[in-house]
C-alpha cells in the first residue's frame, strides 16, 4: 500500500466540479519582483478537460513571471481556452475577441502590449479562420500543443515564430506537463488520464479537435496524484473524452500486464494516502466492462455517481448518430451498476432534434429517461458542426420543433433531479467542505453524489470530510446541519 503524508492546504478553494460553463482561471503569482511581474487572464469555455488544460497553462506560465488577473483589462497576456462542441460556444469566442480589441489598442497606445492567444478546440478546428476573421489574435494554439506556450509566446514577441500551432503531439505534451509544479487552490483536482476519441459520432467534432484515443502511462498518473495528495488534495476526478476507454501502460514492475484498464487504475490510485474520493468522466457505453462495474462495488473511495451519456432513446437515431449501442444495451449497463451499487446516482447527456428525429423517436427518448430516472442530466438541441457527417444529413429538424422537445425533456429531467435531491432529506452524507458559503458562518461542500451542500460550520472544517444530516433540498443544492459527534471524524 502506498502512503502519502496528508498536509491540508490553505482554506478555501475554487469550484472545479462544474461540468459546463465558462470561467476565468486564476493564478498564484510567480516568485518575481513587482517590477518584473506581468499579468495574465485565462478564460475557459466548456468541459472539465479545458479547466484542467487552463490550470496547466497557468503552471507553465508561472515561471515566466505571469501573475493573476481577474479581468482582461490591463493584462499583458489574454488566453481564451475554447470549446467547439456547440455553435454558440464558438461564436462567443469571436464576440469576446471583439471586446478585447479596444483593450489591446489601448495598451498599444500607452506604449505597451497585450498578447491575445486562442487555445483549445476552436483553435484546433478553425485556426486559419480565426487568423483571417480576427487579426487581433497573436497566437492560435491547439489543445495538443499548449505545452509549447512559453516558447511560442517568446517567439511572437520576437517576431520570429509562427502564430498558428495545431499539431497533434499528445505524447510530447504530457511528457512536458509531467515536469511543471501544479498550483493548487482547494481540495479537489482534475487529472487527465486519457485524451481523444475513436468513436466518430456523427454529431461530434472531438475526434477532429482532440485526435485519436491515447492513454497516459500509469506511472505518470500516479506521480501526479501523489503530488496532489501531498498538497492537500482529498478528491480527484479522472478526465478523458472517453475516460473508460483508458488503456495505459502498466506501471514499472508490472510490465508483463501490458496495459491497465480504468477499473484497475482506480483501485491503484485509491491506495495513495490522502486521496479519499475518486471520480471519473466522461464515459461511453461501448467501453463499459465488468471490471469497471465491479470497481463501483468494491472500492469505497470511488464515489457512487456515474456520468454515462446516451444521447437518445431511439435505436434508429442512435444508429444514425453512430453510437454503436442500443437503448436496451444502455439500460442493461445501468441495471447492472445498480445491482452492484444500489445507491449509485446516474447522470447523462441528451440531444434532441438530431436530423431525422420524428415524434416517435423523441417519445422513445422520453421513455428512456423515465426508465433510467436520472439524478442529473445535461440536454441540448442538436447543433450542426461543420465537417461532421451530421451537418450534411437530410431531415434537419425545425428549430421550433427542437425547442419544444427540449422544453419537454428538460421539464422531466428537472422533476427527476429535484426528486433525487428531495430523497436525501433525513439522510446523513459525508460532505467535503471546500469553501466559505454565501452567508456568514456557512460552509459549502460536495456530497458523494456531486450535489452542492451548505450548512453552518466552523472555518476549520474546510478541507475536511464531515458527516452532515440533510434537512432541506432544492433542484440545485442541499442544506444540512453537522452531526455533532461526527464533525471531526474524517
Mean pLDDT: 86
Write down the Rg.
23 Å
End-to-end Cα distance, whole Å, is 20 Å
Query: What quaternary form is this?
Result: single chain
Level-1 CATH class name of the domain at 22-169: Alpha Beta
Give a description of the structure.
This protein is an alpha/beta fold. Among the domains are: 22-169, Rossmann fold (3-Layer(aba) Sandwich); 428-486, Nucleic acid-binding proteins (OB fold (Dihydrolipoamide Acetyltransferase, E2P), Beta Barrel). It has helices at 48-61, 87-109, 121-133, 149-158, 170-177, 206-209, 218-230, 262-269, 290-298, 315-320, 327-340, 359-372, 399-422, and strands at residues 22-25, 38-45, 66-68, 77-82, 115-120, 139-141, 164-165, 188-192, 194-195, 214-215, 235-239, 248-249, 259-260, 277-281, 305-307, 345-352, 376-381, 428-436, 442-446, 452-456, 465-473, 477-482. Strands 1, 2, 3, 4, 5, 6 and 7 form a 7-stranded mixed beta sheet that branches. A hairpin with a 3-residue loop joins strand 21 (465-473) and strand 22 (477-482). The model is unreliable at 1-35 (pLDDT under 50).
